[in-house]
Amino acid sequence: MFGPIKTIYTWLEKTFFNTLTRKLAGNFLFLALLLSISIFITYDYHDTVHRLVAINGDQELMARITDASNASMRKMMILHSIGAVVFFFLIYFLRHLIVRPVRMLFEIFSDLGWAKGDLSVNVPAISHDEFRKLTDNYNAFLAMLRSVFLSLRQQGVNIAVNSAIVANKVSQSANHAERQNKLSEEIFARTRESLQALNTASGNVSHIFDSTTSNLVTAKGNISELVQVRDDVNIMSDKVNEFAESLHTMDAGSQDIKNLVDLIKMISHRTNMLSLNASIEAARAGAAGKGFAVVAQEIRKLSEQVTEANDKISERIGDILQNIKVSSAEAIDLKETTAASRDALNTTCRHFEEMIDHFEVSSGQIEEVTAAITQVRGSSQVIHERMSNITELNHAVARMMDDSAGSSAKLKIETERMQELVAHFKTGEGYLEHLISATSDFRNRVEEHLTNMLEKRNINVFDRDYQPIPGTDPVKYSTAYDQYFENELQPLYDRMVDSLRGGIFCICVDVNGYAGTHNKRYSQPLTGDYETDLLQNRDKRIFDDPTGIRCARNTNSFLLQTYARDTGEVLSDLSLPIYIANRHWGNVRLGFNPGVLIEDQ
After folding, report:
1. Which of 38, 275, 297, 431 is most buried by its number of CB atoms within 10 A?
2. With 80 as the cut, is the pLDDT of residue 85 above it?
3. Chain CA centroid to CA 304, Å
4. Does the predicted model carry a pTM greater than 0.85?
């Protein structure tokens, strides 16, 4: 039943009465319509009275009624005029009491939207009715909302700082876990090799023990033979000594024989001389001495034969003496060699006996080593199995560390989104809003400066042809505009950092992370020392790490990142996009100590 009526009402409201002013005017116009109908009815009654009086014919009565009727009509018109004035006054007054506060609330609620996000404006109290209570309650709610947003900001900063520290610790732990994993794998491989080596050593030691035992038995069997050889060498040494003595005696006897031969030779020579003298005397005697001459001749021949035989004997004796001398010398050498061999054999026997003793000791020690190796092999097998378990656990830890790193990165991104979301709403309080406002003003000045460089000075600030500067490590690059940045923007950077509490750096980077210049404190002359230059000379570099690229390519109203450096220092990085001729150039990056936001709490 009420469906069509509701539909008609909805259509009328959407088409004609879509504001409070129109609704108020519509309702009062309905009252005005009723008043107009009352005027029409009154006029109709007045006309009816005139007709009735005319029918009666009483002119005096008619005149009196007409005067009374006209007077009432005039009063009615005056009252209706006053009513019209009151009507329009009521419309304006009610509009002032209702529409103006509602419109004010509408504008304030509009400022609360995402486009502006302004929570810093309270609704002024302009009346002393329910709207005043509404504004008071709304302002109280707004104050609570500002407090909540400020608290969320502080919590966001704390979470960001802690998540950055956690991310840094997770990264360090991941590196340690990776190193531990590599070490455990290396230890696992070493234990496997050690186990294999122990198995090999155990087999070798067992073989050595068996060989030592066999050699010990053989050595014990050979020591008696060696002792027999030593005794035989001693006997041979005695025989050699006797032989040497015999040769010495023979040499002495041969020398006596030589002396006798020499004596015979001398006698033969004298006999020959006597026979020669006898022959001479016989020749002098003539015939009487012929018989004596014959005897002398025979004696001479015999002497010559004796001499010849004696020479041969002497020659043979000389050879014999020479051989005896050689044999004697060889006998002496043999004696010395035999003595040395005897001493060597005695020493060898003694050493062999000591070696057998050592073999017996070594055999016992090898047996102990074999038992120890067997025990160590068992322990190594257990260690190898434990290292296998440790390696598996390290792999699991590495996977969990990777998951933790991923979760930490997601937490970092979500924290940044929360900070961006919360910081988008202005509360009129907090140092973060001051930083954003100051950086926004700085960004606007930079945009004007770069636009002027591009449009009026024809400097190609969009140059992406980065030219490496020789002899720089890390590598630096030059562009068409880096010198202008260094001369004109670096002083602005330094003043910006100095004007902010907790400021660390302020730079402008293009969409690839290239910074044509840096703050003066980070643009010191190169020293040649990598670690020093890495910290003190950071201009003309491309910061294309994940954080740097996010800063460089940010297109949101701002991006707040918090991260930990390798030194453990936590840093917040605020980025605001730069647009030149409606083209995204890059971002302003403001680095500051997040402690200033925590202290602001």
Report:
1. 275
2. no
3. 118
4. no
